[in-house]
Amino acid sequence: MSVLRRIGCGLGLGLAGGLLNLAALEVLPGVHLLLGPLLVLTAGVLCGPVAGALAGAVSGVRTLWLWGHPWGWLNLTLEGLFVGALRRRVTPVVADALYWGLSPLYFLVTYFLLEDIPTSAILVAGLKQAVNGLLAALILQVVLLLPSVRRRLRALLPLPLVDLSLGRAFGSALTLGALIPLLVLGGAEGRERYTSEVRQLDEANLHAARVVANEIESSLEHARHGVSRLARSLSSSLSPEGALPGPPFLEGELDALVTYSPEVLNAYVGSPEGVALAFSPRTDAAGRPLVGMDFSDRAYVQEVRRARGPLVSDVFLGRGGSSGPLVVTLAPIRRDEQYAGYVLAAVDLPRLRRHAQAQIGEGQRRILVVDTRGGLVFDSAEEGTEQVRSIISTALARALEQAGPKGTGTYEAEQDAVTLVRMSTLQHFGVVEVAPLGWRVVVQQPGTRLQRDVERSYFGLLGTLGLATVSAVLLALTFSRTIVAPVQGVSHAAARLAAGERSARAAEAAQDAPRELNQLAETFDRMAWQLSRQLEAIERTSREKDAFLSIASHELKTPLTALKAQVQLLRRKLGDEHTQRLDNVSRQVDRVTRLVNQLLDASQLGLEQLPLQRTRMDLSEVVRRVAESLVSASPLHTLELEAEPVVGDFDELRLEQVVHNLVSNAIKYSPTGGTIQVWTRRRPEGEAELVVADRGIGLRVEDEEQLFGRFERGDRRELTGIAGIGVGLYVSREIIRRHGGRISLRPREGGGAVATVRLPAAVEPEHGRRDVPAHQEEGRE
Known about the structure:
This protein is of the alpha+beta class. The protein has four domains: about 160 residues, Arp2/3 complex 21 kDa subunit ARPC3; about 230 residues, PAS domain (Beta-Lactamase, 2-Layer Sandwich), CATH 3.30.450.20; about 100 residues, Helix Hairpins; about 170 residues, Heat Shock Protein 90. It contains 22 helices and 21 strands. The longest helix has about 70 residues. The chain is rod-shaped. The chain starts with a helix and ends with a helix. It catalyses: ATP + protein L-histidine = ADP + protein N-phospho-L-histidine. One of its GO terms (molecular function) is kinase activity. This is histidine kinase. It is a multi-pass membrane protein.
C-alpha cells in the first residue's frame, strides 16, 4: 500500500472514530466506553503506524474541549502509533497491553506534573483509557479472525494475525465472549446502585432542608410575634396627639422583648422618620450610645410605613448594635391611619445557623439560606463574615432555578477545573422554600462519596473482568489443547506420510478428542490406508514398466548395433553415389539409438541402477565438443560459446549426455533458428556452472518444474510437430542430482528459455543430498 493510501486510510478511519466517540456507551455513571479506539487500532494494524497516529489524532480531537487538556488526545495518537509500529511482531492485544504497561510514566509527566490532577483521578482515568484500548484491541483481533473478513483483508493482515495459532484464537474469542456480558451486567448493576444512592441522598437533603426551613420559620415567627405584640401595645399607649411614651418606658418594653425572645439579638423603637428613640441594649460593643441613630436610609423604613402587619427583611449589612449580615423583623406602630413609628428586632443569625446545623447533625452537609434577592442569609460552612454575599449568576443560582421552590438537583462547584477534577466537585442539593418569606433553604452534600462508590464499583468491575479474563484464558488453553492436540496429530501423521512413512496413522492421537475430530482422524487413516495401497500398486506397475523398458531397450540395442554396422559396410561397398542416402539412414539409426538409450536410462533410474564413473576432467571440453557438433549439424542455428576451463570430478559420459540433451532441446525448441548461447564458468563459491540459452518458443512459469518429470513435455500447442518422448530433462536432472548439483529451467526475458546447471567441483556422496525440487534450490538470475 502506498504512503498516500495509508494516509487516506488513517484520515478516513479517524473521522469515523471521531463520530463513534460521540456515541460513548456509559458503563457506570461518569465511566464511558469509547468506540473510537477500535477504528484507531484498525488503522494502525492494517495500514501501519502513520495511519494509526493520524486516526488517533483525528478521532481524539473532541477530547481537547471535553476534558480541558490535550493529554488524552495525545495519548490516543500515541496508542495508534505504537500498535501500528508493533503490528508485524505481535498481535494487537499484546501490542496494546505493552503500550498501557508503559503508560504510567506518561500519566505521571502529563496528568500529575503538568495538570496537577489528584492521584485518585489519574488512576481512574488511566484505567478507563486502558480498558477502552484493550477492549478495542480484543474486539479487533476477534473480528480479524472471521473467515469472511480475512478473505477481504488478506493482503493487509500482518504476519501475527495471518499465522495466529488456534489456542490464541480460542483465547481471544472466549475472553471477548466473557467480557461483554460482564460489562453489560456489571454496568447495569452499577448504574442501578448509583441511581438508588443518588435518590437516597436527594431524599436526605430534601428532608434536612425541610427540617431547617421549619426551624427558621418557627424562629422568625416567634420574633415576628414578639415585635407585633409590642407594636400593638405601643399603639394603645399613644397620647391623644399620637406621641409615643417616653424612652424609659420604651426601653423597659424592649428589654423584655430581647430577654424573652432568644432568637432576637437586639431591638429598638424608631420614629416615623427612622431615628432610634430607644434601644436594647443601650450601647454598642464600643460603649457608644445607640439612641438617636438614623436608619432612614434603610429600605425597611419605607416599607414599614406602608405595612399593616409585621415584616421580615432580606439580608443586609448591619450597623449599630451588630455588624455583618443582618435580618430584621419589624412592625408598624399605628392608630387607625395615624403612623407613629415602628418596632424592630434584629434576628440572631449565628444562633439560627448553629441551631439549624444542630437539626441536621454533623457530616458533610452544608446549609445555605437564600433570601428573595439571592443574598445569603447564612452559610453553615462559614462561622462569620463581614460582608453580604450573593449567589446571583452562580452555578447554584442556575441549579435553583431549575429545581423550583421544592426539589433536588446538582451543580458543579468548580466550573473551570479539568473534567476529571470537576466531576469530583459535583454537589447534590435539596431545596425547600420558607413560606411566606420566599426564602429558600438549601441543604447540599458533595458527590465525593458517590464518586468513591462509583470508583469502588468500577474497580470491582475491573477485578471481575480480570478474573473472567484469566478464567477465559485458562479455559481457552484447556479447550485448545483438547482440540489442537488431535489436529496436530493428524498434521504430524500427514507430514510423515508425505515424507514416505506409509504406516503413519492419526487415530491414536484423537482417541479422547471430540467426535468430529475423532471422525477426522479415522477418515485420514482410511485415506492413508487407501493411498498406501494405491502407491504400492503404482510402484509395482512402475517397476514392471521400468523392467519392461529395460528389457525392451536392451533387446532393441542389439539389432540397432547390427543395423549400424551394415550401413557402414554398405557405404564402403556402394560408393559415393549412395552416400547421402546411407548418411540419412545412419542418422536415423543414431536417433533411434539415442531414444533407446534414454529409455534405458529412464528405466534404470526408476530401478535405482544408474551408477556414476567419476574421473578428473575439464567440463568445458565436453561442452565444446558436444555443442559444436550439434549446432554445426543444424543450418538454421549459430553457436555462441564461452568455455572457461572448469576441472572437477565428473562422469564424462553422463555429463556429455546432459549437454547433448540441453543443447539439442535448445535447437529443437527453436524451430525458426537463431543463436544458441552456451557458456561454462567457475562461480566464486567454487561451483561449476553450465548455461544453455536460446531464443525459441520459451516456456511458461508453471511448466518450469513439470518439465523435469518422466515423459512430461507440456501441453502447449506450440509443441505440436516437435518430436520427443519427454525423458531427456528427467534423465539430465537425475544425473546432475547424483553429482550433487542442481539444474533449473526458466523463461528468458525477451523470449526463449535458459537452462542452468551447477555442479560441485569436489566429490560428494551420490546419495548424500536429498532430492530437492530444482525450483526450491535455484534462484532467479
